[in-house]
Amino acid sequence: METVSIGFLGCGEMARLHARCLKQIPGVNLIAAYDRSSEASQTFGEELGCSVAHSAEELLARPDIDTVYICTWHDSHAALIEQCIKSGKRRIFCEKPMALTMDDARRVRDLIRAKRVQFMIGLNHRFTPAVVKLKELLEAGRLHPKMVTVTFACAPFMDTWAGQPEQGGILTNLGSHAFDLARWVVGDEVVEVSCFAERTRLGPAQAEDSAVATLRFRNGAMATCTLHDQAPVPYSLFPGRNMVRIEVFGSDGVIVCRGLDGLELMLNGRLEQIACDPYDELRSWGYLDENRHFIQATLSEANPSPNEEEGLKAVELVQAARVASAERRVVGMRC
Ligand SMILES: NC(=O)c1ccc[n+]([C@@H]2O[C@H](COP(=O)([O-])OP(=O)(O)OC[C@H]3O[C@@H](n4cnc5c(N)ncnc54)[C@H](O)[C@@H]3O)[C@@H](O)[C@H]2O)c1
User: Distance from the CA of 14 to the center of ligand 1, in angstroms?
Assistant: First the structure.
């Protein structure tokens, strides 16, 4: 049986979640991990039973690692993707965002293509059972999206590293997911973006903690994305695990993803509820299926999805929203 041998760059919360998923997938070996905090690498190595590297170079030089997971802070993603590829690695999973600027995102995308790297960007919300079901219903033609709302209402987290201005603020943290979901649900490209991104909770030392963006699509559909970290902690857990909510309206009715727990359909006057399986930390947030998909793709030499093009698109939409907010104008997109 072919195996996949993995090295982790970054040993924090997301690395741990991915590693726990990977441990459930046959044929996967966790080989080594590196974090710039030696304590974080050490703890991760002990918990997950892999060895510890003392630098990214040391980890990437290991011939027994064929696949790299990048789970560091945002400002290192583009450089680490390049470093992996230049070290000869051809299978890379990177947490969102792929980069913080369009120049970096394009350079990385071109390098991934040129070197035929199997690359996946960590947009896990496409893999939550509720969103998978929603996409199936839309692809079956049960509803043609005209108006979409995507809400990410998180418990406070923008006063951590994620809210440092150099890490991209709420638009990078949550907009990457929300804009990608809006595109995924509508199934078309965005032609115009408007946005207000503000500090409504935190002071000037932190980046924007709240945003409302409007996307207009080539096919005439529109989406609003509301992003903030002002929900009480239990909001993302109980009742309903509401952190992410999606409403899709069309001429035949509406489909609502109410958090992670299930969907409500009101189509052609009929009300239907679809419950997802009972809550499981790795499955309900899409992490397990996201990792399964990546590993299956690497083993079959297929192109995983979402890939570098989707990663680039997410960066492009975040950047457009940033410009729209800063310049108080509608930003047109090339598609
Ligand atoms: N998809 C999701 O649901 C989701 C949720 C949370 C975070 N994330 C993403 O996961 C990534 C990591 O977030 P996290 O919550 O695990 O953060 P974290 O702070 O828990 O872990 C990140 C680790 O990376 C290390 N690190 C940072 N920069 C580094 C560098 N240049 N070299 C080596 N180590 C470095 C830090 O020391 C830290 O231990 C981010 O891209 C974030 O946006 C995704």
Answer: 6
CA atoms of 247 and 110, how far apart (whole Å): 35
Reference 64, options 6, 25, 115; nearest CA is: 6
Ligand 1 binding pocket, CB closer than 6 Å: 9-15, 35-37, 40, 71-74, 76, 95-96, 122, 124, 161, 173
Would strands 190-198 and 331-332 be described as parallel, antiparallel, or unpaired? antiparallel
Q: Do 227 and 269 have their domain in common?
A: yes
Which residue among 35, 120, 173, 174 is best mutated to probe the pocket of ligand 1, counting the most ligand atoms within 8 A of its Cβ?
35
Q: Which atom of ligand 1 is nearest to the CA of 80?
A: 31
What separation, in Å, do the N-terminal and C-terminal C-alpha atoms of the chain show?
42
Instruction: Supply φ then ψ for residue 185, to 5 degrees.
Output: -70, -45
Dihedral, CA of residue 113, residue 114, residue 117 and residue 122, to nearest 10: -40
Q: Closest Cα to residue 318, out of 80, 94, 76, 102? A: 102
User: Which atom of ligand 1 lies nearest, measured to the CA of 176?
Assistant: 43
Q: Do residues 231 and 257 both lie within one domain?
A: yes
Outline where 91-235 has alpha helix (H): 102-114, 129-139, 169-170, 176-186
Same domain membership, residue 291 and residue 325: no
Mean pLDDT of 20-30: 97
pLDDT in tens, 265-288: 999 999 999 999 998 999 999 999
Number of domains in the chain: 2
Q: What predicted TM-score, i.e. pTM, was given to this entire model?
A: 0.97
Residue 237, pLDDT above cutoff 80: no
